[in-house]
Amino acid sequence: MSDFLKKGFLLGLGAAVSGKERLDKKLKELVEKNELTQEQARTVMRNFVEKGEMKTEEWSTKQTEQTQEFAADLGLATKDDIHELQERIAALESKLKEQ
Predict the structure, then answer these.
(1) Which of helix, strand or coil describes residue 16?
(2) I want to staple 30 with a disulfide (CB 3.0 to 4.6 A). Which of 35, 50, 59, 76 is the partner?
């Protein structure tokens, strides 16, 4: 499963880089033709990058949620579950020492 997610992420990253390069090339052409100013081209590129960053954060959040759901479906213990058990064990050991 991890390999599948990694390949999907890399595919998306490659598409984003390719898209950014194509956008950059097109913006340069438009600036050369005086259809856009340098500032307008920078604004378009900045918006593109910001949207990509937002999508990356969104994807990361969704992946985390899906992973947690997957672990819960499998009945895997969470860090909180393990920490709670460790505290209970320590409390029981303490009571045994007192007896």
Answers:
(1) helix
(2) 35
Structure tokens at 44: 């378009």
- Crossing angle for the helix pair 2-32 and 38-74, nearest 10 degrees? 170
Q: How far is CA 29 from the centre of its chain?
A: 33
Geometric angle at alpha carbon 70, from 64 and 72, rounded to 5°: 105
Residue 23 CB partners (closer than 8 Å, separation 6+): 44, 45, 48
| pTM of the complete model | 0.48
Cα 23 to the center of its chain, rounded Å: 23
Q: Residue 84: what pLDDT?
A: 96
Sorting pLDDT into bands at 50, 70 and 90, what band is 1? very low
